[in-house]
Design a protein that fits this description.
Order of helices and strands: HHHHEEEEEHH
Number of helices: 6
Oligomer: single chain
Distance between the termini: 36 Å
Low-confidence stretches: 150-168
Strand content: 15-25%
Shape: globular
Strand order of the largest sheet: 1-2-3-4-5
Number of strands: 5
Largest sheet: 5 strands, antiparallel
């Protein structure tokens, strides 16, 4: 799990570390409020990237991680047929949600399921929460103007010159 998050850490190095993280205390507070434990992969993600300006940015056409305080357990009015999910990801327009089955919350890296307003049954989105979070983070960062993608790619490819991420 940690090796998978290292690529995001490397990518954001020097750009987002201190203000991107969430404390263990805040994560535990949210777990207590919801009455549900978070899987190890979700805890690690929020500790490292929970407030990252490059990942959580309200991009209309993409679904993105919810702020820690917005993670929820569906109530009886929620549109899905199965309510036994911890919901942590959504589309800005609230038409797509991603969640983890309650029965999988004790797994270190559980599968992720998706539902949508036009399809209220949950379907498997990704076998690995870590893979889901990392891949979606890169999609979010690709939408972000000013994201350090150019610098990262140059460093990774052997060059160290700074380039404009939008392209020059």
């Amino acid at each position: 799990m940690i090796a998978d998050f290292r690529v995001l850490t490397e990518f954001l190095q020097g750009h987002d570390e201190a203000r991107g993280s969430i404390s263990e205390e805040d994560i535990q507070k949210q777990e207590r409020r919801l009455g549900k434990p978070f899987p190890a992969a979700l805890r690690e993600y929020y500790k490292r990237f929970g407030r990252s300006q490059y990942i959580t940015q309200h991009c209309n056409n993409q679904y993105e991680p919810m702020l820690l305080e917005d993670i929820f357990v569906p109530d009886s009015d929620f549109f899905t047929t199965d309510k036994a999910f911890l919901i942590f990801y959504q589309c800005e327009e609230s038409v797509i949600y991603c969640g983890i089955r309650f029965s999988d919350l004790t797994k270190e890296d559980p599968p992720v399921y998706l539902c949508a307003w036009n399809h209220p049954d949950w379907s498997l989105e990704n076998e690995s929460l870590t893979n889901f979070l990392v891949s979606k983070a890169f999609i979010q960062m690709g939408w972000r103007t000013g994201c350090p993608i150019g610098l990262f790619l140059m460093r990774t490819c052997g060059g160290y010159r700074t380039i404009d991420p939008i392209g020059d």
